[in-house]
Amino acid sequence: MDPLSALGVASNILAAIDFAWTLLTEARSIHNSSSGLSGEAEFVDCLIRDVAVLDAGLPALVEANEELHTLLAESKKITALLQNALQAQKSRGGRSKWSSFQSALKHTWGKDQVKDLTSRLGSLQAQVTRHVQMATHKEVTRGVTAISRAIADIESTNIRLEFKRREDFQELQRSLVQAIEEGTRSGRDVATTINGLLEAATRAISESAETVRADQHILNRLYYSNIQTRHRKIEDAHSRTFQWAFEQTDAGHRLKEWLESRDGVFWVYGKPGSGKSTFMKFLCGNRSTPPCLQRWAGDKKPIVAKFFFWIAGSPLQKSQEGLHRSLLFEILRQCPELMPAVRSAISELPDWDQPDVLQYTKNLLLLYQRIVTQEIPVKFCFFIDGLDEFQEKGRGHSDLIKILRQLELSSDIKLCISSRPWTVFVDEFGSNPEWTLKLEDLTRDDIRHYVSDKINEHPQFKTLTHINTEYSQVVDAVVERAQGVFLWVLFVVRTLLEGLIYHDSVSTLYRRLLVFPPDLEPFFQHLIDSVAPIYREQMARYFEIATLAERPLLAMVYSYLDDIDENPTFALLLAQSKISSEQKSLRHDQLRRRLDDRSRGLLELVQCDNLVSSRAPGEFFTYQVDFIHRTVRDFLHQSADVQSLLQHNLGSERFSLTTCHAILAVVKTAPFHHATDIDQLLHLIQTLFFFASKSLAVNPVSEKVLGPILDAAEASYRSTTSSIDEQYEAFLFIGHAARIDFFSYVHKKLTANPNMLRKSRCDPGLAQSWPALYYALRPALYTHHVSTRTVAHLLEAGADPNEVFGGDRTVWADFLFTLHISLKNEWIPHTHMDIIPDKEKSRELVRVLLLHGADLNAYVAVPHTSGLVKAETLINRVLTPDVANQLYQEVQQISDQMKAPWNVKEQERGKR
Known about the structure:
Elements: H1 3-25, H2 39-57, H3 66-92, H4 101-108, H5 111-161, H6 166-185, H7 190-222, H8 229-233, H9 250-261, E1 264-269, H10 276-284, H11 291-297, E2 301-308, H12 320-334, H13 339-347, H14 361-372, E3 378-385, H15 397-407, E4 413-419, H16 423-429, E5 436-438, H17 444-457, H18 459-467, H19 474-482, H20 486-501, H21 506-514, H22 520-529, H23 536-548, H24 555-559, H25 561-566, H26 570-573, H27 581-598, E6 603-607, E7 623-627, H28 630-638, H29 640-650, H30 655-669, H31 678-698, H32 703-723, H33 732-739, H34 743-752, H35 756-759, H36 764-767, H37 772-776, H38 788-796, E8 804-805, E9 809-810, H39 811-823, H40 839-851, E10 859-861, E11 868-870, H41 871-879, H42 881-911
Parallel strand pairs: 1-4, 1-5, 2-3, 3-4
Antiparallel strand pairs: 6-7, 8-9, 10-11
Helix pairs in contact: 1-2, 1-3, 1-5, 1-7, 2-3, 3-5, 5-6, 5-7, 6-7, 9-11, 12-14, 13-14, 17-19, 17-20, 20-21, 23-29, 30-31, 30-32, 31-32, 33-34, 34-38, 38-40, 39-41, 40-42, 41-42
């Protein structure tokens, strides 16, 4: 029986017991009735009717559980006893005045029998009360759990997005539980009370949830997985540093005045490694609004939003789109009151129902303008770090400056920005020195505090200063040579601490200091030169992989490089088996030590901000390898001497191919447990093809070695998707191979399974996979082109350009969509079409697709247009009508020639 029905049964039994108990314990004086009956007789008739109604209602609830069946039977016995006693009293008649029904019963049953009934009623009441409590608890638990689950689903998204609406739902949940508890204690009709409360709460939750889910949907479209990565990776300011920013110094006074009372732009600039990003993180705070900004806002609500450009990050971390999405996300997260205006603005966009509507800079700017022009009591302060790290196809830093100026729409908005002192920024923001800070001129005392704290923390420093007080002067020497560059200080302190371990003399510590060049580039060169010759090959490999990779690679990839050194077939022979926790920890520790010696700290093990989930420290996906600072990457790219050194030490080693082997080892041993891990697996496979393309570019002979690596990776991928119950993409590998123009591999796969592509259209399992042709027609960022040769090979093997996938898309329509936005230079993120293709190559691709049945009458959804556009019309647009018409004639002529032999044979049959 469900808890609510059981609650109803128990409540009705309890009502009958309460009725009987009242009769036995409460004094009921009987007076003459105006109806003509004696008072006793009328009272007894009333009792009989009431008990009969209660008794008749109970059998309708006999579906109760076994315990309630027993209690129901006992209740009916007591009801029957009462009814008999009442009838006996009625038959006695008489006009004596009863002081209570209990006194009357004593005349019929006797004192002991009444006492026994009273005891039975007490026990029965207690037991039924417990059932009421249990049923109430179950029903409340079930109802509240269902509602709580709905709240929790919304809350979990709110927590991830840090959406301020979560407090509203917490209060609603608390009110619900309190109301139910009060209803339970109120006594009588508990079931109805609880049911009513739950229904009312469900309605309230449903109404609120609909709005909140709509708001969450907007936030989710603005959010991206690494939106906070750069901010988190920046080290927090060391204690006692940057305190001058709020003290009575000239710089502190200027900054404080701007923060507390001024509008416009404040520019922080400095040389590489001077601590600009750390200072910006310090200024904007971590969670709470800095008090000075609260004073600036006055009686308005201050909204602080931040964005840290990162040239080594994903496209969104260094582009206008990433900037706008981050700022809008921060604004709306903190100020849900602005959501109605945003929902209204989105509904007015021509392509409002498209999933990528919030991935266009134009649309994002419109939303921003709508937000900041709302008449609500808010002020906005934006902290934007690393303008020099902005990087976007077809746009330069001047374009970024225009965007920043567009952000300044009123006196309620101001920007604090930082960059290197490049001319483009000096010209724009340096004209008013009052609102600028040159960081390296202000951090002398900060560097002193940092060096002093680090050296004084060392246990050997006190011992040595007792021997010779001149050790304390080393701090001053470091400060003098630092020239405001914190990054340089970081490395110098490392070597000085190493000297303290070995009790270096004061003069030896000074020599350690003097061998470090005061400028970063000579300093980096010095570190690289100091790597022992025996490790330089591994050093060169580490640096080449780190600079080549689109984003930092998993530490486990680097960990397997030495295994490949020992045995080139290591990864191919490695069994498919999850690596143990002990082995993971051992490999991470081993790699940390190797990086320290082979890169002199220029590369380090850092915690991931992963594609998938956060994992406990020591786990497989926790760590990746990255440069200690972006200036190291810049130096490695720009220094001809370093490039020469790296190439010399690499010799004939094909490091891209070695990396492919290492990635295969990771794919085989990674502990994928859940369907949520699939993104990490797919990213590894994409990285494998990235390095495969690099290997093919420098050494076509590597084709023979790459084939078995890809086959082994695909077998591992198939096994993993099966074990975690995730869909296996049948054409993932042949599609990626076509994408990088690995023609021999594609040919081998199709030769081994000639019907592979034709089968996909009739096999329900394969039909769910994305078509191989889809991959082939979308160039990767690292290949920059689509191979007509490989596309034609897929078409000849049975690939269908009109194949439907992903719901209602076709490969042909998707290709035309990306071709249109690419040729029109309307770059859209995630389409991998940021390279404007050659029109002649585009014409050839269209020609090949049309020859293999691409439908000219198909319709394509095009951005910034209403409705759909016919394929033929779209081709005329992107190729021009003259070129398109010439192409159609050519295709028709070739098609006629292909049909000619068949027509001749038909004519000959007709003659016979």
